[in-house]
Amino acid sequence: ECYVQNTAREYAKIYAAEAEPLEGFGEVPEIIPIFLVHRPANNIPYATVEEELVGEFVKYSVRDGKEVNFLRRDSEAGQKCCTFQHWVYEKTNGSLLVTDLQGVGMKLTDVGIATLAKGYKGFKGNCSISFIEQFKALHQCNKYCEMLELKSLRSTHQKQRKPTSTKSKTLPNSPTIKKTVPKKAREPRDFISSEH
Fold first, then answer.
1. Which of 82, 169, 107, 97 is nearest to 133 (CA)?
2. How far is CA 88 from each of CA 62, 113, 115, 167, rounded to the nearest angstrom?
3. Which helix (H) or strand (E) holds 24?
4. Residue 152: left (phi > 0), alpha (psi -120 to 50), or beta?
5. What is the pLDDT of residues 9-44, one digit of tens each?
6. In degrees, to the nearest 5, what angle opens at C-alpha 104 toward C-alphas 71 and 94?
7. Looking at domain 1-148, does it have CATH number 3.30.420.10?
8. Which residues of 16-30 are buried (b: 16+ CB within 10 A; e: fewer)?
9. Which of 42, 108, 136, 144 would bridge 83 by S-S if both were Cys, CB 3.0 to 4.6 A apart?
10. Residue 146 and residue 4: Cα distance in Å, rounded?
11. Helix (H/G/I), strand (E/B), else coil: 169
12. CA atoms of 79 and 156, how far apart (whole Å)
């Protein structure tokens, strides 16, 4: 736990050094340090301690497919956390992702790290590799991503899909037909079925 959070903290410091000087970027999320304490006289000889965060505790990033927190898109802290994730992903060539970002305002704690199966520079994360795939699929760039000149994940994802499917050559002709007749017919049914 200490190793993961303090590793993520080091990435956050580098991110801050790049982001803070940018005009209009403003305050940058900070991952608070966590310390391991040895208590030999206690039944549980080891414990972790960290700064107490006072205020509304918010989860800014997606932890699994069932949890999507839209507060991350609406708040400045949430957008900057998503940008931090994008920045780390890009800096590590998609090999590492700081995830499960949560905290009070710009102070974050209890974060996780996902890495590819082989790890990244000797480091293996504590979250599933699927978090990286999920991030690539769900991330929406915001103005902070643009300020840092991060590459859009959408265009990368779309470029990967086109060569793998031969159907994509025939699909451009058919969507105009589908958009005019079947899609309109489907919309009321989708709406009705979602009410059940």
1. 97
2. 15, 10, 11, 34
3. none
4. beta
5. 999 999 999 999 999 999 999 999 999 999 999 999
6. 65
7. no
8. beebeeeeebeebbb
9. 144
10. 28
11. helix
12. 21
- The helix or strand, by DSSP H or E, that contains position 47, with its residue range, turns out to be strand 46-50
CA dist 25 to 22, 57, 83, Å? 6, 23, 11
Residue 9 and residue 31 in contact, taking contact as beta carbons nearer than 8 Å: yes
Q: Six-digit token pair at 184?
A: 């309109």
| All structural domains of the chain with their residue ranges | 1-148
Compute the distance between CA of residue 108 and CA of residue 183 in angstroms, rounded to an integer.
Answer: 43
Q: Tokens 């979250």 identify what position?
A: 127
Q: Are 107 and 30 in contact (CB under 8 A)?
A: yes
Q: Which two tokens stand for residue 39?
A: 């208590």
pTM over 0.85: no
